[in-house]
Amino acid sequence: MNDLAALKADLEGLAIEDNPQIVRQKSRDFFWYSPVLKRQLDEVCADIVVTVTSEAEVIRVLRACYAHDVPVTTRGAGTGNYGQAMPLSGGVVLNLADMNKVLEVSTGVVRAEAGAIMSTIDDAARPSGQELRLHPSTYRTATIGGFVAGGSGGVGSINWGGLRDFGNILRLRVVTMEAEPRILELSGADLHKVSHAYGTNGVITEVTMPLTAAYDWVDVLTGFDSFAEAARFADALANQDGLLLKEIAPIAAPVPHDYFLRHQKFIRRDQSVCALMVAPFAMDAFSAFASRFGGVEILYRSDLASDEDKQGLPPVYELAWNHTTLRGLRVDPTLTYLQVLYPFPDHVEKAVHLAELLGDEAPAHLEFVRFDGRNTCFGLPIIRYSSEDRLEEIIRIHEDRGCPVFNPHCYTLEEGGMKQTDAVQLAFKKEADPKGLLNPGKMIAWENPDFDFSSDQTYLFPGLAR
Amino acid sequence: MNDLAALKADLEGLAIEDNPQIVRQKSRDFFWYSPVLKRQLDEVCADIVVTVTSEAEVIRVLRACYAHDVPVTTRGAGTGNYGQAMPLSGGVVLNLADMNKVLEVSTGVVRAEAGAIMSTIDDAARPSGQELRLHPSTYRTATIGGFVAGGSGGVGSINWGGLRDFGNILRLRVVTMEAEPRILELSGADLHKVSHAYGTNGVITEVTMPLTAAYDWVDVLTGFDSFAEAARFADALANQDGLLLKEIAPIAAPVPHDYFLRHQKFIRRDQSVCALMVAPFAMDAFSAFASRFGGVEILYRSDLASDEDKQGLPPVYELAWNHTTLRGLRVDPTLTYLQVLYPFPDHVEKAVHLAELLGDEAPAHLEFVRFDGRNTCFGLPIIRYSSEDRLEEIIRIHEDRGCPVFNPHCYTLEEGGMKQTDAVQLAFKKEADPKGLLNPGKMIAWENPDFDFSSDQTYLFPGLAR
Ligand SMILES: Cc1cc2nc3c(=O)[nH]c(=O)nc-3n(C[C@H](O)[C@H](O)[C@H](O)COP(=O)(O)OP(=O)(O)OC[C@H]3O[C@@H](n4cnc5c(N)ncnc54)[C@H](O)[C@@H]3O)c2cc1C
Ligand SMILES: Cc1cc2nc3c(=O)[nH]c(=O)nc-3n(C[C@H](O)[C@H](O)[C@H](O)COP(=O)(O)OP(=O)(O)OC[C@H]3O[C@@H](n4cnc5c(N)ncnc54)[C@H](O)[C@@H]3O)c2cc1C
């Protein structure tokens, strides 16, 4: 590891960590959500972690790593659950968690360093009556740079769609991995070059995001006799144009009762639930709509709950998105999950059909979102895992019924996404990371241009076999 | 007119106007948009106008009019274009224009007296970074009470749907027409009792509306070689979930050039136009989207226009909704218009087909809105009017192709709307206006319970023949 010694010398004065336990910890994310990734990635580890506090330090690290041919994997908070932030070829984990200042809040816009935690950004925006449009359920731990580079959407997507949509990211400042790193400012169509690229073609140092009006969202849990009713209610609610909600998630029994331990007292075991965030001034209209819909039991409303009832309850968004699975995993570590799109317009029928078909092997969990201008839903069904083969079979059952799966049991961009080469991101990698040192192994199009995405094979990064 | 003398005596101390010219002026609205209504309603006139400044005065007027059996027609700013505010049986015009205070602005909510002008409400809300969700293009003249009682939607409906949707009106304070008028506070499902009831079953004295984030909207005009392209662009834009716009209106050539006189210098005569309001921070993303779409010429952007260019230009929203027709009428007083719904999902095909079918007899004008959770469009085509028969024929041509017409050539609630009895509003009228003195002649269900809506007959109020 001679290069490493030279690299360390070059980086003198920076915060370098080489304690093996800490390095191992900072080399891991939530990959263990997947039994497949757990098997594949458990030994992955960086050589050192460098924690930077400024863009100038980022440039210094990249310049030195380029000179010494050392791979660099950028890390925000490491909450990704696809193994996105795991350094498959070792080298440096570039930790941005301390580059976390909110730089500027103006009307409709916030500018922050990439390592800023999303809830911190909202704390800074809220005095102006504003908040971020979208956040993952890891709002209180994840960084804005990690969300842009590795996330897709979440709470708020029912109003704004996802990060992939024009207008949900305004501007990115990016440092390239070259002999002399350049600073680029991307906006408009250029944002796609680095957003959701897992840091494979640049390090984002600064993020400019749109803001929207902030409210003291009311957490609401509604109960239903069947999952189908919960799903239909969610769909009808999503289509209420004048009712402002930030989150609509139907979750099939017995998941809410069995895994939402703090909320268990409000939920019967046979009850399917819709988890909601409603604007406070919309509560009257929401109640009127729910009683007209019929069959809706209000189990919990944070605006009417006693302090005693609220004691120790997590916010509703921490029951939703990947937190549903997390709460399941805490009770039953053998569980895993899928990520599915149920395409409009028969998304509800498809989701209900699959839920009935798979029964308790795959309790349904939907997330309603705006998608290409329509209200439809993603699904994150919990899977009672038996084997990799059966998991593949369940994926096929979904795809055969016209419901694409964004496979969360793969660590590559392509396999977890559109299953095709992203020409824009590949071209930008050629320009911004000519040596291929940024987060190696995550972009198949770079590692193996001839890979056949139509085959049933999953890609295996050679670097993993070291 | 003995009763009137007694009534006047009862109202002593209030602002009573009986100057015939002023009374005639305050008895009229924009009914003359329709050649049919112009013929039917031109002689309509109240006996006196009473201008009130408080709810207590409203109660005094209603109590006295009830005692003397004098009809009362409430008036906001009189900008309705269905003859809604015209006193078909004479009597009192109750003018609320001076009851116009904005009472309270809080997070997400504004409370105002019913006669407050919408732009005044926004002036009061804007220091808190907020504005109304929806406004008609008569924003700078119309009252909030008149909008709730007589309007349907407008600018902002692309994000929030219409007034009929749960959540777009929060609370109404209403005075009944009884021996002893009662004050009612309506919310939730009860709002429907009086919203869009033309003041036939109560006088709204106070309105509570939701607010949303306020921006310095950028006025944009984009040019296209054909109306079909303008309509397709508008539809694609409406489906961009991350692009925040407040207004999307494609308008067929030669209307923009011929009738938008102040903007004429930016527009070729053969150019169809999309009139847009875009959030300032969304302009980069909007431009990226427009150039990816292709064939879009940016004719005008208020954020880049010189002061000289902007001089004397009306805001884009005063080119849209019923202002498109108004600008046409100013150039060619023989024009009129229709109001059409093109139902999702083939709204664009339907609108383009009808535009091509009717050619220059009915230049197309669409307004994109959210409707039952989908993005679709209303149309307000300009009609080069020849006869009432041909107008009926054009309406039939639309309806035969699955495009319902909200006939703006009728003054009754039912004929301009759903063409059926609204049982809720009728029941509330029985309760709140037992003598039927409020805005007589506008609710067929009250005047003639046996009226056959499926017949081809239009309803003629007997009171008109006085
Ligand atoms: C319980 C749970 C719930 C979740 N819910 C959601 C959800 O609702 N929606 C959603 O989209 N995701 C969700 N995720 C995934 C993840 O939490 C989010 O995407 C989160 O925003 C990632 O942020 P992070 O700071 O943890 O990024 P990390 O995990 O540190 O990094 C994510 C990826 O981005 C790269 N990266 C990080 N920072 C930068 C940078 N500055 N420049 C370039 N590349 C960078 C990393 O290399 C990695 O590839 C969830 C995960 C868990 C475990
Ligand atoms: C150029 C132009 C553009 C327009 N654009 C739009 C548009 O975009 N969207 C739209 O919806 N409409 C539109 N309209 C119609 C109209 O301007 C609006 O509906 C407006 O909000 C009406 O407000 P007003 O104060 O003028 O009401 P008025 O015309 O005074 O009254 C409207 C109706 O409500 C009743 N009313 C008024 N105040 C009260 C009250 N306090 N209590 C009970 N009943 C009451 C009246 O009796 C009448 O029946 C347009 C009209 C014109 C002429």
TrEMBL record, chains A, B:
In this chain the FAD-binding PCMH-type domain maps to: 41-214
Q: Name one GO molecular function term.
A: D-lactate dehydrogenase (cytochrome) activity
List keywords of the entry alphabetically. Answer: FAD, Flavoprotein
- UniProt cross-references to InterPro entries, sorted A to Z: FAD-bd_PCMH, FAD-bd_PCMH-like_sf, FAD-bd_PCMH_sub2, FAD-linked_Oxase-like_C, Oxid_FAD_bind_N
Query: Which organism does this sequence originate in?
Result: Stappia taiwanensis
Any one Gene Ontology BP term: lactate catabolic process
- The molecule here is called FAD-binding oxidoreductase
Keyword Lipid biosynthesis found: no
Per its UniProt record, what Gene3D superfamilies does this chain match? 3.30.465.10
Q: Which PROSITE patterns match?
A: FAD_PCMH
